């Protein structure tokens, strides 16, 4: 048995138990003892009832904006550092602690009638997030959106290029997706960031290691684009949210934008997403599309098995059925 001053003791402790160096936040409201020592000014309500986890470029912003049209749904305040998303569970923000996260949620909500949610599209494929999220909010519902991973990868490439990514600007899309171990490191890294989120089944399995499948809703991003009204009705049923709102009154197809946009009685014109959502770019070249289709084939087979196993309310997406034929 040894004793030491606090700092030294901490260092000794983490040398013996390195696995404890990473914090894992639990929900203070789920434990009476924690509640007793927690400040009376804090509230258990400032946590999400559901999370929209991504992946990026599948229509997550459209879903986010449609959700906000609902009178009982509210989201987090914007994070000025990460272009709106809070991204608590996926990066170093996690080390800022629970108060930091909870302060993003509006206070004064009625937890039985109001639905607070957070959307961070980086959550989907981050290895740490499912465990971290489950430790803090085990009863929260999880919503993910999938589109054809080939198109998702291309949309992501267009997105990072438009944001001035130097590596993306230097290489063609084909060069990026065919990069290998001999390629420059930044190119290999970009390829991985581009392709990995589309390996849907492996990421979903990680979420299912923690959350029961009944808490997981997987949406078809193509349907969200072509028939968002029916998707929003499905989401409301899944969340058991009241009042049930008819989205025919809240969103309408806008010919100019080429997508559905929000409408409200008080608005002069529909409110569409900005230019960075629904970008116009050249059609993907056939050679690179073929490379990507080959790459994603085994992942899509695994996804097909997974979706068949889960009892999801939506039928298999058309692109998945077509890909496996
Ligand atoms: P593109 O810009 O490549 O067309 P995210 O918000 O997850 O980044 O996804 C962006 C994608 O959402 C867009 O990709 C677009 O195709 C799709 N999307 C779906 N519904 C939309 C809508 N109502 N308005 C704009 N984009 C929408």
From TrEMBL:
Parent-protein residues present: 571 to 895 of 895
Similarity-based family: Belongs to the sulfotransferase 1 family. NDST subfamily.
Locations listed in the record: Golgi apparatus membrane
Name of the molecule in the record: [heparan sulfate]-glucosamine N-sulfotransferase
Chain sites annotated for binding 3'-phosphoadenylyl sulfate: 155, 260, 277-281
Species annotation: Hypsibius exemplaris
Catalytic site positions: 57
Lineage top rank: taxon: Eukaryota
Residues annotated as domain Sulfotransferase: 48-298
Disulfide pattern: 261-272
Chain segments annotated as coiled-coil in the UniProt record: none
